[in-house]
Amino acid sequence: MATAISGRIALSPGHVLNSRSGDKVSLHKGHYVNCGVPRTISAAGPGKGGVLERPTVERTTPGRESEFDLRKSRKLSPPYRVILHNDNFNKREYVVQVLMKVIPGMTLDTAVNVMQEAHLNGLSVVIVCAQADAEQHCMQLRGNGLLSSIEPEGGGC
């Protein structure tokens, strides 16, 4: 039931609802939580002056970081190199296909250059990224039969 009201409405002893003229308020019987539009509630009892502040709501699941926290931690972690090692088993075309499938944003030209450098020099840097991403890319390359490893971008441990 919605009713247009103005003035102060007593919610419970010591608490009132302040509203403006023409505001609509829904009144329900039973157990309803946060079903209406938030209103300003003030304490009217002795020694309880002022307006209560709006509570902050934490929307992350306990034990999980928010998307913002994950991005922040990845930017702060030291960069790692994903290294592709030459092998005598996989065809060059297959290596290019796997690189484009596993590494986000990897173009055909870049994949061919990485494959060619690994073929000629024994190894090639595939991508430089956060450690967690580097470990994931390395495992995906290995899962597709390629030899790969990671190392800190600084050169050694």
TrEMBL record:
Signal peptide (residue range): none
Residue ranges that the Swiss-Prot or TrEMBL entry lists as coiled coil: none
InterPro entries per record: ClpS (IPR022935), ClpS_core (IPR003769), Ribosomal_bL12_C/ClpS-like (IPR014719)
One GO biological process term: protein catabolic process
Adaptor protein ClpS core domain sequence ranges: 77-143
A Pfam family of this chain: ClpS
Protein name (database record): Adaptor protein ClpS core domain-containing protein
Organism: Platanthera zijinensis
